[in-house]
């Protein structure tokens, strides 16, 4: 028993000596739980502590430096985009229709028909890109190009119906059927425009940049970067166009012959062309999609890109 008391006395003396050597230890609160409880009560009382902290944190964030373009700021880009594409798109559409139905009208006739629908195509294309822009801003570019494809089905549809009636191919086509085959169209443009738009930079960074490293010369490096970027855009455009050509042929067939269902359109394309139906007329779309994807880089990306906020 005396041994236990001696140990207690020794511990007490040791604690007294430690506190006398370091007075700050003697001043520390012994009930940590009560201290934490008091502080928590101060912060949580009426929720003011939390809201003040959040408010202070929000005030500490730097103000945004960029914003999206307004609707009116986008219009010069959209109108130029629609007009530029509509110079080439009707002729390419007529060419593909002739390839599918194996007819050879005079070039002058195709040019005349293309010029006659240029204003309609420009307006439709401009509206198409304006409608798809909010989808890109609130979802993502893949969804935007799916919407572009569905609407593009109507743009192509107006041209296909006009040409089919003028060239007397398929059955009598009505403008009420310009959106036939939109399922084909949505997937088609997700591939043909979405892949170059979203993947060309990745292709450049993981292939061309690896094969042709950048130079120490800043001017030469900028030139080489541009060459590699456009090489990537063009190469991915060609591959994506041929990947989606079969879908385009099926929609064109549905619009020219509006009695066909989806399955019947696929069957008709393969019956008439075999596996070549997957790529028939693709050379026209390659040329057109090269123009489209170049315009995507020059006009659509700037229209969709944020701009600095003026102070």
Structural notes for this entry:
This protein has 311 residues and is mostly helical. It folds into 2 domains: 9-47, no CATH class; 77-304, no CATH class. 78% of the residues lie in helices and 1% in strands. The chain has 13 helices and 2 strands, in the order ααααβαααααααααβ. It has helices spanning 2-21, 23-27, 32-44, 48-60, 71-101, 107-116, 118-138, 141-167, 182-192, 194-211, 218-256, 262-273, 282-304, and strands at residues 66-67, 307-308. Strands 1-2 form a two-stranded antiparallel sheet. Helix 9 (182-192) packs antiparallel against helix 11. The radius of gyration is 34 Å and the shape is globular.
Share of helix, binned? over 70%
* Number of structurally distinct domains: 2
- Rg value: 34 Å
Q: Strands of the biggest beta sheet: in what spatial order?
A: 1-2
Helix/sheet category: mainly alpha
Q: Which regions are unreliable across 5 or more consecutive residues at pLDDT < 50?
A: 1-11, 13-45
Number of helices: 13
Number of DSSP E strands: 2
Summary, kept brief:
The chain has 311 residues and is mostly helical.
Please give a handful of descriptors for the protein shown:
311 residues; mainly alpha; 2 domains; 13 helices; 78% helix; 1% strand; MCP_dom_sf; membrane; transmembrane; Mitochondrial carrier protein
Topology, pairings included?
Layout: H1 2-21, H2 23-27, H3 32-44, H4 48-60, E1 66-67, H5 71-101, H6 107-116, H7 118-138, H8 141-167, H9 182-192, H10 194-211, H11 218-256, H12 262-273, H13 282-304, E2 307-308
Antiparallel strand pairs: 1-2
Helix pairs in contact: 5-6, 5-7, 5-8, 5-13, 7-8, 8-9, 8-11, 9-11, 10-11, 11-12, 11-13
């Amino acid at each position: 028993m005396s041994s236990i008391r001696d140990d207690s006395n020794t511990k007490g003396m040791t604690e007294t000596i430690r506190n006398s050597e370091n007075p700050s230890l003697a001043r520390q609160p012994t009930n940590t739980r009560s201290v934490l409880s008091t502080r928590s009560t101060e912060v949580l009382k009426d929720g003011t502590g939390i809201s003040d902290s959040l408010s202070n944190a929000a005030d500490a964030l730097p103000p945004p430096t960029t914003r999206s373009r307004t609707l009116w700021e986008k219009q010069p880009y959209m109108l130029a985009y629609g007009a530029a594409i509509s110079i080439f798109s009707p002729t390419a559409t007529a060419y593909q229709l002739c390839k599918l139905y194996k007819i050879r009208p005079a070039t002058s006739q195709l040019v005349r028909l293309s010029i006659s629908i240029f204003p309609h195509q420009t307006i439709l294309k401009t509206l198409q890109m304006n409608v798809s822009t909010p989808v890109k801003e609130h979802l993502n570019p893949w969804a935007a190009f799916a919407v572009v494809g569905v609407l593009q089905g109507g743009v192509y549809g107006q041209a296909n119906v006009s040409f089919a009636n003028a060239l007397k191919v398929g059955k009598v086509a009505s403008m009420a059927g310009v959106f036939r085959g939109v399922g084909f169209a949505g997937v088609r443009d997700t591939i043909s425009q979405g892949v170059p738009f979203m993947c060309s930079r990745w292709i450049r960074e993981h292939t061309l940049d690896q094969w042709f490293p950048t130079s120490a010369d800043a001017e030469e490096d900028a030139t080489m970067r541009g060459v590699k970027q456009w090489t990537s855009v063009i190469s991915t455009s060609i591959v994506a166009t041929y990947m989606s050509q079969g879908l385009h042929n099926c929609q064109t067939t549905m619009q020219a012959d509006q009695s066909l269902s989806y399955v019947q359109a696929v069957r008709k394309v393969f019956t008439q062309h075999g596996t070549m139906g997957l790529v028939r007329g693709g050379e026209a779309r390659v040329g057109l999609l090269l123009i489209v994807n170049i315009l995507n880089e020059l006009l659509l990306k700037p229209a969709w890109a944020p701009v600095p906020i003026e102070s």
